Amino acid sequence: MTAALLRRVAGCALPDRVPPGLDAETRAAASAIVDAVRDGGETALLAYAERLDGWRRGSPWLYDRAALERSLQVLDREARACLERTAERIAAFAQGQRGALRDMELAVPGGRAGHRVTPVDRAGCYAPAGRFPLPSSLLMTAVTARAAGVREVIVASPRPGPLMLATAAIAGADALLAVGGAQAIAALAYGVGAGACDVVVGPGNRWLTAAKQRVAGEVAIDFLAGPSELVVVADATADPGVVAADLLAQAEHDPDALPVLVTAEAPVIDAVERELVRRLETLPTAQTARAALCNGFAVVCDDWSDVPAVCDRLAPEHLQLSVADPAALAARCRHAGAFFLGERSAEVFGDYGIGGNHVLPTGRGARFTGGLSALTFLRVQTWLELTQPAIAAGDVATLARLEGLEAHARAAECRLQD
User: Fold this and answer.
1) Tens place of pLDDT for every residue, the chain, 418 residues?
2) Are residues 302 and 217 in the same domain?
3) Nearby residues of 53 by Cβ (< 8 Å), 6 or more positions away
4) Which sequence positions are flagged as catalytic?
5) Does the model's pTM come out above 0.70?
6) DSSP alpha helices (H): ranges in 118-258?
7) Of the N and C termini of the chain, which has fewer Cβ atoms inside 10 Å?
């Protein structure tokens, strides 16, 4: 009998999953690269690009806006039109998010206070290009930064061909660094090749994820976005072939990807297994997908009432609800990077600009953060304007003395004569 592609796991025995890329060895190696580029600048950056990215000395490694525009002019018309439509959809969603967060003002004792919402000045956007170039990720990051109002956008992506260079132009990037991995994150964070960025965003492998963790605090990052994760919840109404197709779509991303099937009906798993076997026979990326399926598993819950708790424990990047009443199930699930409601609302549509951003937290990060959005590039800055400070000075001085901070109290009391 052929071994199952997805190992069976009881709902009460979910494996503890360490966020990919955060093991000590990877963290140490990525930190060494980041530190070397920070200290060694362009020389160190290009040495790593040559060794790890396949960059050749004498070839371009920094493309300015004019170079990006030249690639756009020769791009295939149909490809350009598709990329531009996708960019427009991404921008529209991001602009809607930006509009949802507004400046605020209210009365306080003695005056008024409020906040203003402002974008950062410079954003660094990483687009992976490991086994495949990913123009969609470039659009998701750079277009969203522009929609948020960022003044300068620098993109990094290794071995960029004409397609990626043209996509950078469509996205509104000011420049593109032809480097990848931890060295690219260091270049964006510390301004090697182009100016230092205020925020660095984008998905990638475990090396990139560890590098982002290393620079966090010196610059802002979106979150730790490692290899793709998909949890499909399916009941008897789901088409097993479609469920298998959804799982394979994420499994082909990376051998470290995590495809998971959750159900309370064991026959669903058997039917999906048969479809996985059948579809793998003709899938060009079957080798990668098979490796990812080895990471994945199928969860058999005792009852449908247990499913939300299982999903929340997994807190996946993508949660596909291929069930009869997806809205009802989604209302009971709290932790996911993005929800896809119903079998028709395939996760792959989210990958390519239909709806929200596809840069999402992995490794159970959805428990405490959401995905990349216009808000990632914005700051909420508070302000205070008092015209009658004496109204508040008494309470401020009293509280300061309760904390033993006499100079604070006296600074407040200086305003009493006002």
Assistant:
1) 456 889 898 876 776 654 444 789 999 999 999 999 999 999 999 999 999 999 999 999 999 999 999 999 999 999 999 999 999 999 999 999 999 999 999 999 999 999 999 999 999 999 988 777 899 999 999 999 999 999 999 999 999 999 999 999 999 999 999 999 999 999 999 999 999 999 999 988 888 989 999 999 999 999 988 788 999 999 999 999 999 999 999 999 889 899 999 999 999 999 999 999 999 999 999 999 999 999 899 999 999 999 999 999 999 999 999 999 999 999 999 999 999 999 999 999 999 999 999 999 998 999 999 999 999 999 999 999 999 999 999 999 999 999 999 999 999 999 987 6
2) no
3) 158, 159, 178, 179, 180, 181, 183
4) 317-318
5) yes
6) 135-148, 162-171, 181-190, 206-215, 240-251
7) N
217 and 246 belong to one structural domain: no
Question: And the tokens for 100?
Answer: 């949802």
Report the C-alpha gap between 23 and 9 in whole angstroms: 24
Contact (CB, 8 A) for 308 and 45:
no
Q: Taking phi first (over 0 means left), then psi (-120 to 50 degrees means alpha), and beta for anything else, what does residue 159 get?
A: left
171, two tokens: 């996205």
Nearest to 389 by CA among 105, 106, 111, 107: 111
Tokens representing 301?
């819950």
* Continuous H helices in 216-264: 240-251
Q: How far apart are CA 88 and CA 74, in angstroms?
A: 20
Q: Which two tokens stand for residue 190?
A: 């510390």
Count the domains in the chain: 3
Contacts of 74-80 spanning 24+ positions with Cβ under 8 A: 74/162, 74/166, 75/162, 75/163, 75/166, 79/163, 79/166, 80/166, 80/170
| Gap between the Cα atoms of 273 and 245, Å rounded | 11
Give me the domain span that covers residue 417: 388-418
- How many residues are given for the chain? 418
Contact 183, 205 (CB under 8 A): no
Q: What angle do CA 8, 14, 18 make, to 5 degrees?
A: 120
Identify whether residues 168 and 70 lie together within a single domain: yes
Same domain, 235 and 207: no
Q: Under a CB-based contact definition with an 8 Å cutoff, are residues 361 and 223 in contact?
A: yes
- Does residue 294 sit within a domain? yes
Residues β-bridged to residue 114: 105, 383
